[in-house]
Amino acid sequence: MNTVRVTPRTECPIESEHAASPDTHHRDGQMVAGAPTGPLQDSNSAKHATERQPVQGRDPATDFVVEVRDLSLWYGNVRALTNVSIGFPRNKVTALIGPSGCGKSTLLRTINRMNELIPGVRTEGQALLNGVDVYGRNVDPVEVRRRVGMVFQKPNPFPRSIRDNILYGAKINGYRGNYDELVERSLKQAALWNEVKENLKKSGIALSGGQQQRLCIARAVAISPEVLLMDEPASALDPISTVKIEDLMRDLVREYTIIIVTHNMQQAARVSDYTAFMLSDEETKGQLVEFGRTEELFTNPRDRRTEDYITGRFG
Amino acid sequence: MAARTDSFSSAGEFRANLPLRKWKGYIFSALGILSIVIALGTLLTLLFDVVQDGLPWLDWQFITSFDSRFAQRAGLRAALAGTLWMMALTILFALPLGVLSAVYLEEYAGDNWFTRFIQVNISNLAGVPSIVYGLLGLQIFVRLFNLNRSILAGALTMVLLVLPIIIVAAREAIRAVPSSMRDASLALGATRSQTVRHHVLPYAFPGILTGNILAASRAIGETAPVLVIGALAYVATTPTGPLSRFTVLPIQIFNWTSKPQKDFHGLAAAGIVLLLVVLLSMNSVAIYLRQRLYKRF
Asked: Is the ipTM, as predicted for this complex, more than 0.85?
């Protein structure tokens, strides 16, 4: 299977997956469907979605919630991502690791088009969210962001009550269900309900840092996102709060697909099912070096640079 | 082991010279205190002098009477009403205009030469002598718009005068809103205008109110532009609407100080005290609102 790898620089996740776990059985057709496609590929999304639907069951190696294809990004004239192709499997935690400035946060933010808020950003390529290219001509970034939940590095609850924090996204997006139920369900999903249920009117910014971050997670899941992006969600928190967030991610992944950017390799090893290693070097900025099952990538990296990074030889 | 002493000895490559450094610190803070004493001392002396002269004249009759040739019967009812009318109208127009301009410049306008040109000129406008605004107002509002020498014409002229102040303050306040707040809102699927209306403006509102206080303080004491517009020195009626003719407190005060009789100088002092009272009560309302909003956040 390793012979399939033609371009070692930006590997296709599917192929990596094959190489990493030869015991899983894949059909060739699925492999091709998940592989990066050329620019001539029709971007009509609905068609893709039907094509890619696996025949029996859902195979994590082909059932991608988000699939990035040949994505490049520039901040003005500075390139930040180079032809990245990667698929994020459904109901799995995928960790993006790599040294500072390797483009992992940028990649994360291409998925909900948050990069566009920075002036002078240019994106090329596709990012399919359940088959729909979020960069498609008829796709509004506001609609994309409703479908993609995001948790930021620094907890950023609104200076409003806990309840209003949860309900804000629901209200602006025309949620028709019961507000009280939504608040309770979201806070329970974020493992915060028992701590705040007595006082939902309390201001979100009066909570502790760890609680604030869980409130932000609750706020993100309240709009029923199709994927949950987490940009170093625990890096501003103490160790106990960090453990809580990590436990929470393992709970959430049963219902959601999570993509997490982290600087902490132990954290990546603890919480993620899949790991992608990214790197920027002189000639290629923001490249995907290796993608695979977390266990495989950490115990048996195939790329020399991955091995150097995870053994602490640089970065 | 070294012997125990109760002070560190200076040794090695470091010469800390702590006494001299501390002395410089004392001199620095003493200079600061001296500056405050000079600034506040002058102000307090002035206030004391004015209050001493004006207090005997400050009574209910002074507030409720119109101006008169006789100092004993003169009051500033018309001027007080004119000032209140004008301030209300000025804020009514200037606040939304200024805040929306600031929102546009901060949240929507890109960073290009045109917006930079606008920004530089807004700062320049804040430094234009007020009489120039008066002339502009006379030409545009009084003559072109045919508003005559009314409160509305005066208020609109004042709007021009205070807009730069409000815009600059509102921009500062909007810029101080953490971008994480905008990110949080946008990431939940809010549009840009929802983000501005629901999060940025409420967050920036206390700072915007501070700008409003500054603007009101400037406008209430301005004499030159209203003089050019043609506010009257002698008005014997209170305004009945925005199109009434009017006078304002600074003009009334100016008028009294230019009279030869000593009694009118006392009246002027009393007028100044009242002007300060109006200004301070307006500002207290704004400060109260600001504190209440701060508490919410």
From this structure: no
